[in-house]
Amino acid sequence: MANMETIITTIIVNYNSAKLTERAVRSVHDNHVPGYKHEIIVVDNTATESERTALESSISGLANLIVNKTNIGFGSACNIAYEQSHGKYIMLLNPDAFLDKNALSILINYLSTHPDVGAISPSAFLDNNKTFFLPSSPYSNPLMLLIEIIISKVGILQILGSRYSRVRSYTELTRETPYCKYNLSGGHVLISRDLINRIGGLFDPRFFLYYEDTDMFLRIQKLGYKLYILPDAKVVHNYNQCTPVDRGSKNRYMAVSFQQFLHKYDHSGILMLLLQPVSRLPYTSLFARRKIKDLGILSSPPQFNVPQKLQSQWILEFGPNLSFTPAALKKGRGPIARIDHDTWKLLKPGQYYARLGGLGFFSKLNIWQWVIE
Fold this sequence. Notes:
34% helix; alpha/beta; 373 residues; Immunoglobulin-like; 2 domains; globular; Spore Coat Polysaccharide Biosynthesis Protein SpsA, Chain A
């Protein structure tokens, strides 16, 4: 039984997201956990007077604010907050995410009663109505991550890998009991302070952005602990709402961090040696040989006609890549599949793809593409 002095610390890193950060803070503040006190720490990486003022006025009395003079990166900002925190448990939450009511209580109760679990996450959804499910990243192992890159670029492996990802994501969507994963998201995860100290600290500061959480989850597993997702606890993660960084810049950040990740764990140098030719492989998609309906430039959300034989139950996915990794998905039934207006408003300009099919691995898939300007 926790006493009244037991603290849960939530760490939120802000970057040009004051309004979203306020929403995230309030979602934590509204998550009453019997026997626990809240400590919320917001670290601002924006380094502008206007953002600091906006945060001070919106979260005053709800959270402690730390303002960095420059953008020091996500992981390093979290580390600063962690060093000043007092919580027995640490909740990491992105500014564009917010917890469902009772989510934190469910997570705390499970983590505190399962000593073999090192980190735990709620089930994640893209939109506020929790219509489109966000599956977790499948791997934290460096070799498997490199194999994923190969699969994404090599002919028939693309289709097989994408279909496998589709079935795996649907399986997660329909889970009703806690399930184990090899990787989670650092944007909404709960960990104990004791374990963080045992793995050598929160985030490796060498990772400016991306893979700092993958590295942490790998360190947790190397100590023999498991990673879990709880379907009963839910979080809405309005993905990609925080910063105006374009896809190209994000891809460059990700590529650099992936090389750092491989270098850290590839003691033999073999994986780093393989990365160079793999990264130069041309993207020769077999998806392009399939019939893809081009919807052109859209200013309002599309709807898709469902073939008669699929109307009893179907899966609709959409995302920025033709491989549909990553992709948000929902299951449904009936003659029409839709992307609702609330979800549509979350989409940034760029190319998007959607596909619709049955539940099976070999189900025929209908694919569409469109552009948002």
